[in-house]
DNA sequence: GTAAAAGCTGACACTGATGTCAGATTCAAG
DNA sequence: CTTGAATCTGACATCAGTGTCAGCTTTTAC
């Protein structure tokens, strides 16, 4: 599929999709004229990339991570190095802390909201 | 207390503390010479500000929110407007979604880590 | 064959909290 | 008084993903 359709289906801008390619996160075939041609799997991949971005991972880390994932059409094409595993574990722990922080913040907000509503 | 001590105690840079003041998040008395002089309460306030920043709130929203909070030394000095309550509710819901996203991301990472460790 | 729609590359702007540096002033202690 | 540490203001830089625009080329539909 073309970049426009992929953008529509994933709700991600064409700009971002090209950026993902530049960062090595998303590969695409090319038509003879040079237009990007994405496989169906690209949809899931873009969603996954967005998810990891939302989790605070940087593109470099995602680029290392993606080849180690079970892909929708087969096993991982690379094995995570111990170094990468350590990095990912650190990220996982960071995410855990972030979640805990967010829960507290949400409770703080709830308190303010309840006080205001009780007025 | 002076800005240096506040920075040390909150683990927030002096730069950021001055920024908070410029954004109307953190007030400080001044010595005759112009140096900032913070009350003890400032410590808690800075921690709270950091927490709200971590939750993704922007300084403008925090500036609106803070006066409506039960302060350590008394009741709120302002009442949340319906508009603000709506905003905060939206933020709270956004945080909820963020938490859900993070949980999924963490699980994704865990999966990769486990696959790698099982090698 | 032609025109409109879609895609391409490359460059620059933006956000928003924070880092950093320079030069001047104030504070605290001897 | 003097000196060194702390603080002041103001300006510019950074990050990293994304927005946006220009100018050109390809694709698609008629």
Describe the structure.
- Two copies of one chain form a homodimer.
- Chain A is mainly alpha-helical and 119 residues long.
- Chain A folds into two domains: 1-78, Multidrug-efflux Transporter Regulator, Chain: A, Domain 2, CATH 1.10.1660; 80-119.
- Chain A is built from five helices and two strands.
- Chain A has a two-stranded antiparallel sheet.
- In chain A, strand 1 (29-30) and strand 2 form a beta hairpin.
- The longest helix of chain A has 36 residues, at 82-117.
- The mean pLDDT of chain A is 90.
- Chain A binds chain B through residues 48, 51-52, 54-55, 57, 65, 68-70, 76, 79-80, 84-85, 88-89, 91-92, 95-96, 98-99, 101-106, 108-113, 115-117, 119, and chain B through 48, 51-52, 54-55, 57, 65, 68-70, 76, 79-80, 84-85, 88-89, 91-92, 95-96, 98-99, 101-106, 108-113, 115-117, 119.
- The structure holds a DNA duplex (30 and 30 nucleotides).
SSE layout:
2 copies of one chain form a homodimer.
Chain A: H1 3-10, H2 14-22, E1 29-30, E2 36-37, H3 42-54, H4 59-65, H5 82-117
Antiparallel strand pairs in A: 1-2
The structure holds a DNA duplex (30 and 30 nucleotides).
What is the element string of chain A, with H for helices and E for strands? HHEEHHH
Number of helices of chain A: 5
Q: Report the sheet-strand fraction of chain A.
A: under 5%
Please state the average pLDDT score of chain A. Answer: 90
Give the largest interface pair and sizes. A-B, 39 and 39 residues
Number of strands of chain A: 2
């Amino acid at each position: 599929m073309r970049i426009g359709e992929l953008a529509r289906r994933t709700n991600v801008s064409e700009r971002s999709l090209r950026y993902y390619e530049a960062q090595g996160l998303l590969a695409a075939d090319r038509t003879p004229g040079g237009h990007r041609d994405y496989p169906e799997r690209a949809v899931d991949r873009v969603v996954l990339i967005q998810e990891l971005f939302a989790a605070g991972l940087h593109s470099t880390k995602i680029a290392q991570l993606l080849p180690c994932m079970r892909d929708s059409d087969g096993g991982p094409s690379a094995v995570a190095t111990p170094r990468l595993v350590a990095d990912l574990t650190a990220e996982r722990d960071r995410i855990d802390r972030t979640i805990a922080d967010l829960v507290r913040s949400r409770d703080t907000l709830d308190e303010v909201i309840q006080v205001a509503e009780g007025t």
